[in-house]
Structures are given as structure tokens and as C-alpha cells.
Design brief:
Layout (H helix, E strand, L loop, with lengths): L1 H25 L6 E2 L2 E3 L6 E4 L4 H4 L7 E2 L6 H8 L9 E8 L2 E8 L1 E2 L2 H27 L3 H7 L3 H4 L2 H9 L2 H28 L8 H29 L6 H29 L2 H30 L3 H29 L8 H28 L5 H31 L2 H16 L6 H16 L4 E7 L2 E8 L8 E2 L4 H9 L3 E2 L17 E9 L2 E9 L9 H55 L1
Helix pairs in contact: 1-4, 1-13, 3-9, 4-5, 4-12, 5-8, 7-8, 8-9, 8-10, 9-10, 10-11, 11-12, 13-14, 14-15, 15-16, 15-18, 16-18
Length: about 600
């Protein structure tokens, strides 16, 4: 159910982003316009007037003060929210110039073509980060990847949506702006989550502080954005100076500082061998934060269309660079270790989107072309029947293809573990079983450590290990926390959820993360301990399932070896019994002869 819910949410986000991208690209040659001024953080003082703009032609000058309660909502949106307005818009309102109030009418002027080109580049860059974010959620669902996926949705919202909100009735316009504000706050939270958890999804030190502040900071940003939008639509006075400063500068400054500190902290605690793999993503992320910060400052103090277009292009380039660095790192260097389980998740997503696209195409093409006939309905019914009949076949084919082609290494590792599980019951010695429990997972899954403790009386003695030294625990007594827990439950256990006060265990990437009991009947026969990957990544669900399958094979092997030992013992006892009977017969015969 969790997987289906995740697929449904990712599908909904993907459809939303594709729709917004299409809307933005269709309107690329009809960009927004502007009045050509900038207003300070007090909400009323004109701080900049662009030459040849509508504001300049109306006689508005730097230092003039807007009479806020008489300013139309469209003017407030442009002044306080720093949004463009629709071409041909005009507003009439009073301003105070050198202590004298007068009424002015300001008409908007459209942005030049360079701004349209910058917006197209921005839309395409947004698509790249949106695609990578949603793909990573499917590949490795975690708070870190969900954080990255939360970055793109608000960036996809094109100018036509803002322009429609400006023309809508106040209640509808406010609702749309509040929804956009919530999306911006979620973006802030998502960036903090991603930066604090990259790349292992286990924040530490300063990054852990940033991670814990992500949701509260998002809530604070939501409150600030909501209040400013409410003041734009309903208040008779602008928001307080400090609140506008936080909206225009404070949240962006805090976000940039927090995320960069978190990334630097994660880089500092990473293994030296991993730092070169992390560097491209960290540098591209820091570049994105820097360009975003500069763009925010520039757009608040200047309405120059060329400057604004330049920084839009700079941010677009930074976004594309970040998406490329993350995608390349995942594919080439496994900077973020992806889960083999994604192939199934991806199949469901592809099927869902494909079915929706097919019916949408049928509805559009045949519904428009054959409006007056029932043929469109017949075609839809036929398509539904065909899809229903072929769904299982298509699912199986896509599943196998994605496993073999896109995740070949993980596919081969899973098959190797399956063969090992099937081979173990035919083992002829316990040493072979113990070695297979360690060597196969370490080699096939690239694990940093593994160890097997075999029951010996009441205690469990280490019989085989990789990534463990002589100084590490050689025996677990029968009252050890882990032994007691596994003996009681006979279920695999994530060691992060267990209080296990031992100081003689491997640490770092070799630290044991997963304990798998090997049960013979209802008796705990052995304990297998596994660490994470050599790159520091945790075990994913499919890998844990493979380890459980290997332990099940080992349990059958132990049972088989025990049975073989019992058969051998029985055969030996039968031999001894036959020998005793023969000896008895000889003695009886001798006794009888003696009596005769």
C-alpha cells in the first residue's frame, strides 16, 4: 500500500509538472509585463524606477510614497510580491511626492524577447531537476529524495498562472497565491532536507540540526508568505517592515547559509575516498544557492529586464548543472545508492502514465473529430479491453527489461544470492555454510562487513567474518541483548532499533546494521550480522530480503547437516549394536558348549 501510494503521488506530481511545463512553453512568446519600479521593505517607498518604463512615463520618482490603502490589488501584487503583470494593464492610484499627494496612472510595458528566451530556459532546467527528483523518489524513497522532489513543483508554475490569478476575483486570486506560497515554503523545507541528508540520508552533527529545523522553518516561511499575501488582498496597510524583509531577503539568506553549512558538514564527515564523488554535487548545489541569492537581491532592487533575464539564465544553468551532477553521480558513482525495488515501482508508474496518456489521446483525437458519432466511445471501450488483456504481459516484460537493462548489476547480485540460497541446503559441512553466509553477501552486494555466530551450547561463537578484526567480539553469551531478542522473536532486526551496549563491534561503514536469525525448527541456531555498503549506504529492502532468503537456505543446510549427523550416529549405533549382538551370540554359544 505504501508503494502504491508513493507511485500515485509521484504520478500526480509528474502529470502536474508536465502540464505546467506545456502551459509555460505554449506561452513562451507572450511573456508578462511590468510597471518598472521597485518598492522598499516598508511596502510604500519607491526605491527604483526604470527609465522608459510605465512608472517613469507616469512621473513616478525614487522616494515617492504609495498611498497603500488606495493602491489597487494589481499594483500591490507587483510592488510587494515582485511579480510581473499582464500586458496592457493599467492602475490609477495616489502617491505622495515631496509631501504633495497626487494621482498617477501607470501602464505596464511587456518584457523584451530576451526575457521570453530566459523563461524557456528556466522551464527546461526546471524539468531536469523535476525529473531527477521524482526518479530518485522511485529509486530510493527517503526523506532526502522526497526533499529534492519538493524543489521543482513551484518552479514549474508558469507566468500564465500568475497572470490569471491577477485577473481573477480577489477570493480566487488570494487562494492561488496562498497555494503558491505554500509550495515555496515546501521548497525551502525540501532543500534543507536534501542538503542535510545528502548522500546517506543519515544526518549527523550540524547537518542534523539543519534537518530538524527544516519543517519548523518551512512552517515559519508559510506563515510569513500567507500574511504578506493576505495584506496584499485585504489589509489597509502594508505588512511590517521586518516581515517584508524576511520575505524578500531573510528566508533566502537563511536557506543558502543553512544548506551550504549542511553540505560542508556532510563532506567533512565523509570518508576521504568518497569526497571526490560528492564534490560535483556539492559544488553545483552551492552554485545554485549562490545564483539564487544574487537573483533574489537583484530582482528586489532592479526592474531591468535584461538583468533579470541574465540571472534567470544563470539560475537555469545552475539548476541544470545540479540535476546533471546528481544523475551522473547516481548512474556512474552511486553517490546515492538506488534500490533494486525501483524496477517494480517504475513499472507501475510507466503503466499508470501510459494508460492515462492513451485514454487522453483517444478522448482528444476521436472526441473532437467524431463528436457526433458513438465511434469514439467504441474505440475507448476497445482500448480498455485491449489494455486489460495485455496488462499482465506488458507488466512482466517491462519488469524483466528494466531489471536486466537498467539495473543489471543489482539484477545479477539478486540472482547470485538466490542461487546461493538454493545451493546451501546441499552443503556437506558447517564451515561451508558459515563461509557462504559471509562471503556471498559481501561479494555480491558489496558490503563492508558480515559475521556469523554459531550456537555452541548456550553461547554463540564467531565462526566466519569479513570486516571484523581479532579485537572485535568473538562470542555472544546467552544473555546478550541481541541473542535474547532474536531467540524470542526469530525475526530479522535492524540494529538501529535495539539497545545493544557493546563496544567491541566494528564501527564506521563496517558497523553492523542488520541481524538475521538462522532458525532450525524453533531454535536459534546461528546469528548473521551485516553492515552497510562500502560506500556507506544502508541496505535496501530487496537486499534485506535476499539476506533473509540466504539465512533460510542456511537454516535448511543446518537441518540437513544435523539430520546427516543423526543418520550417521544411528548407523554407527546400529553397527555397534550388531557387533554386540554377534558377540553375545558367540558368548552364548560358548557358554552352552561349556555346560555340555
Amino acid at each position: 500500500m505504501k508503494r502504491l501510494a508513493r507511485v500515485a503521488l509521484v504520478t500526480a506530481l509528474a502529470l502536474f509538472e508536465v502540464l505546467m511545463l506545456a502551459l509555460g512553453l505554449m506561452a513562451w512568446n507572450s511573456p508578462a509585463a511590468q510597471f518598472g519600479w521597485n518598492v522598499g521593505t516598508d511596502g510604500v517607498t519607491i526605491t527604483n524606477v526604470e527609465p522608459n518604463s510605465g512608472a517613469a512615463e507616469a512621473g513616478v520618482a525614487v522616494g515617492d510614497r504609495i498611498v497603500y490603502e488606495k493602491m489597487p490589488i494589481l499594483g500591490r501584487i507587483d510592488a510587494l510580491l515582485n511579480e510581473g503583470v499582464y500586458p496592457g494593464a493599467a492602475i490609477t492610484f495616489p502617491i505622495v511626492h515631496k509631501g504633495i499627494e497626487r494621482v498617477v496612472t501607470v501602464e505596464s510595458k511587456p518584457f523584451p524577447n530576451v526575457a521570453a528566451a530566459a523563461l524557456v530556459a528556466y522551464e527546461l532546467a526546471t524539468f531536469s531537476i523535476g525529473f531527477v527528483g521524482l526518479a530518485l523518489v522511485l529509486l530510493r524513497p527517503s526523506r532526502m529524495t522526497w526533499g529534492l522532489a519538493m524543489v521543482a513543483p513551484v518552479l514549474f508554475i508558469p507566468e500564465p498562472v500568475y497572470l490569471w490569478a491577477e485577473r481573477a476575483p480577489p477570493a480566487q486570486g488570494l487562494t492561488i497565491h496562498l497555494a503558491i506560497s505554500l509550495a515555496y515554503a515546501m521548497q525551502l523545507t525540501g532543500l534543507m532536507l536534501f542538503a542535510s541528508r545528502f548522500p546517506t540520508d543519515r544526518p549527523k552533527g550540524v547537518a542534523l540540526v539543519v534537518d530538524r529545523l527544516a519543517v519548523p522553518c518551512g512552517a515559519i516561511a508559510t506563515a510569513i508568505y500567507f500574511y504578506v499575501n493576505w495584506a496584499v488582498y485585504a489589509a489597509s496597510a502594508p505588512p511590517p517592515h521586518w516581515m517584508l524583509w524576511l520575505q524578500d531577503y531573510g528566508t533566502t539568506i537563511f536557506l543558502c547559509i543553512a544548506t551550504v553549512i549542511a553540505l560542508v558538514s556532510n563532506y567533512a564527515v565523509a570518508a576521504r575516498a568518497d569526497r571526490s564523488r560528492l564534490m560535483p554535487v556539492i559544488v553545483s548545489f552551492a552554485l545554485l544557492m549562490a545564483t539564487t541569492l544574487v537573483q533574489q537581491f537583484v530582482t528586489q532592487v532592479s526592474s531591468n529586464a535584461a538583468v533579470d533575464a541574465f540571472w534567470n539564465l544563470a539560475v537555469a544553468a545552475s539548476v541544470t548543472l545540479l540535476a546533471t551532477a546528481i544523475a551522473y553521480g547516481v548512474v556512474k558513482h552511486r553517490v546515492i545508492d538506488v534500490s533494486f525495488i525501483v524496477s517494480r515501482t517504475l513499472v507501475y508508474t510507466v503503466l499508470t502514465v501510459s494508460v492515462v496518456a492513451i485514454f487522453a489521446l483517444i478522448e482528444y483525437l476521436f472526441g473532437k473529430l467524431l463528436e457526433r458519432s458513438s465511434l469514439a466511445t467504441v474505440i475507448e471501450i476497445g482500448a480498455a479491453v485491449a489494455i486489460g488483456v495485455s496488462l499482465n504481459y506488458v507488466h512482466g516484460w517491462l519488469d524483466r527489461s528494466i531489471d536486466v537493462v537498467l539495473f543489471r548489476r543489482r539484477h545479477l547480485a539478486e540472482k547470485r544470492m538466490e542461487r546461493a540460497s538454493e545451493t546451501l541446503p546441499h552443503a556437506s559441512s558447517e564451515s561451508f555454510v558459515n563461509e557462504m553466509l559471509v562471503a556471498e553477501p559481501v561479494d555480491a552486494l558489496d558490503l563492508a562487513s558480515a559475521a556469523v555466530f554459531r550456537c555452541n551450547g548456550g553461547a554463540f561463537r564467531r565462526e566466519a567474518a569479513a570486516g571484523w578484526s581479532e579485537a572485535h567480539a568473538a562470542e555472544l553469551d546467552e544473555n546478550d541483548h541481541l541473542v535474547v531478542r532474536l531467540r524470542a522473536e526469530l525475526q530479522p532486526l535492524a540494529l538501529s532499533g535495539l539497545r545493544w551496549p557493546r563496544l567491541d563491534l566494528p564501527n564506521g561503514v563496517a558497523q553492523p546494521l542488520y541481524a538475521v536469525p538462522v532458525a532450525s525448527g524453533h531454535r536459534l541456531a546461528a546469528i548473521a550480522l551485516y553492515g552497510g555498503h562500502t560506500g556507506g549506504e544502508d541496505l535496501d529492502p530487496d537486499e534485506r530480503r535476499s539476506l533473509r532468503g540466504l539465512a533460510a537456505g542456511a537454516a535448511l543446510a543446518y537441518d540437513h547437516l544435523t539430520a546427516e549427523a543423526l543418520h550417521k550416529t544411528v548407523a554407527e549405533l546400529r553397527g555397534e549394536n550388531d557387533a554386540l549382538r554377534r558377540s553375545q551370540d558367540v558368548l552364548v554359544e560358548r557358554v552352552l558348549k561349556h555346560l555340555e
